[in-house]
Amino acid sequence: MSDVARVAAALPAGQHVLNVCSDRYRFTVGFAASLVRGKVSLLPSTHTPEVIRQLTVFAPDAFCLTDDPKCDIALPRTYFPELKGEVTAGLAVPAIDSEQLAAYVFTSGSTGTPLPYKKTWGRLLRCVHNGASRLGLLDGRTHTIVGTVPPQHMYGFESSVLLGLQTGSALCAERPFYPADICSVLASAPRPRVLISTPVHLRALLAAGMPLPETDLIVSATAPLSHELARAVESAFATRLLEIYGSTETGQIATRRTAETAEWQLWPGVTLTLKDDGQAWAQGGHVEQPTPMCDVLELTEGDRFLLHGRMADLVNIAGKRSSLAYLNHQLSSIRGVVDGTFFFPDESHASNTGVTRVAAFVVAPDLDAATLTEELRRRIDPVFLPRPLMFVDKLPRNGTGKLPQEALRELAARHLRPPT
Amino acid sequence: MPDNASPVRQPAPPASSKDLEREVADLIVQALNLDVTAAEITPDAPLYGEGLGLDSIDILEIALVVSKQYGIQLRADSEENEHIFRSLRHLVEYIAAHRTK
């Protein structure tokens, strides 16, 4: 609480905070300090120059709270103050109004402008409380949370920062990256300990073939895990693995124990409805308003459902979500690009960590690959940079100007290397 | 005569650094499904961000390949980490110095 008070006092007047602290403890203190000062945290999915520019349009008074002296984000910067561990006596935990606007999260939208979603403090807490109960963390013990995901990502925000605040768990400030790092941070975390991770990191951990520290619970989100991988993780760590399903718009809404069942169970109060066009909508509980889900869902029984993959236009790479429409918009708005399209190859092109990248075809006779890639890097998150980027004379558009998937697949078959 | 009783880690057969450079470049291109050939990777160009344009998922992929192939577990908390990925040459030097197989 003393640290929160100290940081709160250091925050400037602007009402909107882009908190980019990479240290999980500093991020959490910065978030709490913003809440105390009645400021709203901005959580865009990426920090490219173009997204930062759009944020300044959305919130002209936005400032950036950072713990990195090399931070080059184009916003007024406030450096995270040095904390000396001084404890100020008599500070009460402040009561935050549940209707207070705590954060805006953003999805990429399809027109090039990120779409904001409001998150009130009360709904965020309700969501995380339901999650804590489903994960079995409300058993009176103090858990230690180790996260491999950044605190700014919606999943990391909910499942490390907020989960820690809500359950009184200890947070590991580090964000371990390599398998050896994850193992050493885990091993040094007091038990019971929880690993908040993703399929990419879990695959890497298994593939590294090192001794894995005993862990009391493993949580995975961002992309669905296969039954096989879930079982392998459970047996390698001799523990339970629970998967969380959700979206930026709704927050987390369901869990499953993947090694035992393919069915997801919704969190209390949340319901799903299928509309006539087959799209599933979530509402109730902590979900702020009826919200269309971007995946193909099949409702089974009661509060259960099955997930049958993403809708055709959506791309999810290692927890970063975008749509082909958005990526295509960014590509074609580059000067010198006559025509262009992104393409999502089938999953046989996945790497060792299970990641499939997007490719792109572009008609741009006056541009070279390096220039075009540099332009794209300004606009889209690096995980979506096309790999490969292929220059072609023209795209196989049909009579109505559309690009049939089949024609694109044929074009790709001619240009993409076969999966290894 | 090798002394079998003392399991001292023997350095790998002394491949020339050019050979190792080529071998590592090949591994990277294969693991990441890159659109360039191993010979096109400039030894001194940055691997991360600009240059070859790798991101953190790629670095994780490379770490996996390096641990399988050369028996090295990379650590982010070692000061060398930033240095290692500065270029192919740095990575190769690190592998040559630390390989256990």
List the keywords.
heterodimer, A: 420 residues, alpha/beta, GMP Synthetase, Chain A, domain 3, 9-stranded mixed beta sheet, 6-stranded mixed beta sheet, 23 strands, 29% helix, globular, B: 101 residues, mainly alpha, Non-ribosomal Peptide Synthetase Peptidyl Carrier Protein, Chain A, disordered N terminus
Draw up the topology in text.
The complex is a heterodimer of chains A (420) and B (101).
Chain A: H1 2-10, E1 16-19, H2 24-36, E2 40-43, H3 49-58, E3 63-66, E4 77-79, E5 101-107, E6 115-120, H4 121-135, E7 144-147, H5 154-167, E8 170-171, H6 179-188, E9 193-197, H7 199-208, E10 217-220, H8 227-237, E11 240-247, E12 251-256, E13 264-266, E14 271-274, E15 280-283, E16 291-292, E17 295-299, E18 304-310, E19 314-317, E20 320-323, H9 324-332, E21 339-343, E22 359-363, H10 369-379, E23 389-391, H11 405-415
Parallel strand pairs in A: 1-2, 1-3, 2-5, 3-4, 7-8, 7-9, 9-10, 10-11, 22-23
Antiparallel strand pairs in A: 5-6, 11-12, 12-13, 13-18, 14-15, 15-16, 17-18, 19-20, 21-22
Chain B: H1 17-32, H2 56-70, H3 80-84, H4 88-98
Helix pairs in contact in B: 1-2, 1-4
How would you explain this protein's 3D organization?
The complex is a heterodimer of chains A (420) and B (101). Chain A is of the alpha/beta class and 420 residues long. Among the domains of chain A are: 95 residues, no CATH class; 102 residues, GMP Synthetase, Chain A, domain 3, CATH 3.30.300. Chain A has 11 helices and 23 strands. In chain A, the strands form 5 sheets. A 9-stranded mixed β-sheet of chain A has the order 8-7-9-10-11-12-13-18-17, with helices on both faces. In chain A, strands 4-3-1-2-5-6 form a 6-stranded mixed β-sheet. Chain A has a 3-stranded antiparallel β-sheet with strand order 14-15-16, with no helix packed on it. In chain A, helix 1 packs across helix 2 and helix 4 packs across helix 5. Chain A is globular and about 70 Å long. The N and C termini of chain A lie far apart (53 Å). The longest helix of chain B has 16 residues. The N terminus of chain B is likely disordered. Chain B is mainly alpha-helical and 101 residues long. Chain B has a single domain, classed as Non-ribosomal Peptide Synthetase Peptidyl Carrier Protein, Chain A, CATH 1.10.1200. Chain B is built from 4 helices and no strands. In chain B, helix 1 packs across helix 2. The chains are: A alpha/beta (420), B mainly alpha (101). Chains A and B meet through helix 6, helix 7 and helix 10 of A and helix 1 and helix 2 of B.
